[in-house]
Amino acid sequence: MKKTVEEHAERFSEKAGAYDDSKSDEYQACADLVVAYADPDPDDIVLDLGAGTGAISLALAPDAEQVLARDISEGMMDEGRHKAAAAGLSNVEFAYGEFREPDVGADQRVDIVTSNFALHHLADDEKREAIRVMAETGARRIVLGDVAFFEEPDPAVPFYSPDVDDPATVGTLVEAFTAVGFAVTAVERVHDQVAVIVAERTGGESA
Questions:
Q1: CATH of the domain at 39
Q2: What is the pLDDT of residues 68-77, one digit of tens each?
Q3: Virtual CA dihedral for 158, 159, 164, 165, nearest 10 degrees?
Q4: I want to staple 167 with a disulfide (CB 3.0 to 4.6 A). Which of 7, 17, 115, 147 is the partner?
Q5: Is the pTM here over 0.70, yes or no?
């Protein structure tokens, strides 16, 4: 991670109010795919990591039993809480949580884990640890939308900033999922540097 958790939290809190209006078409397409692939049943509990202002959490809430929205930025979560209240959604819980410490109780059931445009802030070894934590929730499905490289990255393209972001290759992320007992069932190429990866639990975990 090129910045501390506190630095990332402060940076996102500062731009929380304008965050939703600043997103690219590719971001929106990525978010739409994450929501479509998550596809919760009415009795499913969804854990949304790096939830931000709630783009994924609020879209999934009408179809799920509950959404546990976790983020490190209080400013972003405040925006999400306001949007949830305005939409009349009472089954979304915004609370502080990091990828590797999502603040989910040991007895809390989680059926689906989602994340969109957030994991790329971690270094590759930290991403692997985060994916292991996602798997340990017991979820049957993980849907990740993020900056990820299919080809050689071009820092001039505005999907990531080399100063603060550390995206992985798609291959690295796929290997991380298979290492914790998940089968990657879909990889969507939104852009050369933007991917949606869908992983389903297979019942086994490699050592």
A1: 3.40.50.150
A2: 999 999 999 9
A3: -150
A4: 147
A5: yes
